[in-house]
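ok so dumb question maybe but i'm new to this and my supervisor (M.) told me to 'just get the structure for ATPase' and walked off. so i did the thing. is this what she meant?? sequence i used:
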Amino acid sequence: MVLRILVSGLLEFDSGKTWTVIALAKHLRELGLRVSVFKPVAGHNLWGSVKALKKSIEVGMLVGNDVTAYMEYLGDIKPGPSNPIALALAYPDPLSFRGVAQYLSMLSDTASMLVLARVYDCKRNVARHYVFVENVARLTNSVRRNVEDLAEKFKAVPADPRSMLESLSGHGAVPVLEGCREVLEEGLDVLIVESFNNAVAPYTRVVDLVDFFIIVAPGRLMLYSGDRLRNVYSILGGASRVDRLLSALSRPLVTLELPLVESPTELAQYLSPVAEAIAP
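this is what came out, is it supposed to look like this??
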């Protein structure tokens, strides 16, 4: 029986989910448990993601910052199963717009910034890549060449960004995500699932499966039972954001202050109270 832990962030950005996932995985592995990590849906901006860009070229498929960190610190991570849906965004060239207001408006629209996507089918062991030509055309010359090179390398198929996002956010993506979860869980003791942004869960099915729920924010970690998460989630009618259910979760099983650290390896040593509460 696999123990499942969901890690979600209170803030939309920079809550500390990825480092918490890595640190907890390292700590549980040190206890002798077979642990892997699962980021069902991941998006990253190519700006500030040079390491992920290089890793994508190295492994032959699109990977983002989260999976790049998984591979760096945990080693034996297969990027496809660990992250079935990967999305790459890029800032367009501000000079390609009529004015700054139009440019800034574009930045709030994910579909207008999506340039590449990858969907991994774990049952068939196949990665499919997609390129969004209209958005790529709005990039600066150097970034456009980077994206076009990746698209050619991955044999990406042109697609419509809005249609792609709609298909990935609907029920059609669930078989892909569940297929990879099942593959990952073979031979495991613990699977740690990372949500995205400040979403409670990367997809609804996860809420039904987890044994424990962790919320992280800068400097703070709170651990709840999976049953408590399900009760509150049901009462609130499937609240999609962490901030909307936090006050209803009541007292955590464990709460920790998280110090400033240089790496998730260093953070791992502070997670003993969490490991003690969840270790099977």
